[in-house]
Amino acid sequence: MPGRLVGHGRPNPIRPTRSIMPPTPTFPTSQINPRRQDPEPSDPRLSNSQQNSKPSNARPSNPQHGQGESDRGQHNRLHLSNFFATLSSLAENDRITGLFMMVCALAGLILANLPETGPGLNALAAWIPLDLPGGLSLSLKDWIQDGLLTIFFLTMGLDLRQEAATGTLRDHRQVLLPMLAALGGVAVPILIYCLFNLGSPASLRGWAVPTATDVAFSLAALQLLLPKAGPALQAFLMTLAIFDDLIGVLLIALGYSSLGQPSWLLVCLVGLVVWALLVRAASRSARLWRPLVFLCLLGALAGGLLAWYSLFKAGIHPVLAGVAMGLLTPVARSKASEAEATEAEEPSASTAPNLTEPTEHRPTDTKPSGNEPTETHPPVTSQANTKPAGFEPTEIEPNRNPTLSPAERLDHFLTPLSALVVLPLFAFFSLSISLDQLGPGLLTDRVFWGATLGLALGKPLGILTMVILAGHLGLRRPAGSTTGNMIGLCQLCGIGFTMSFLIANLAFAGSPHLESALLGVLAGSVLSVLIVAVGTTPGRLRSARHT
Question: Where in the cell is it found (predicted)?
Answer without folding.
Answer: Cell inner membrane; Cell membrane
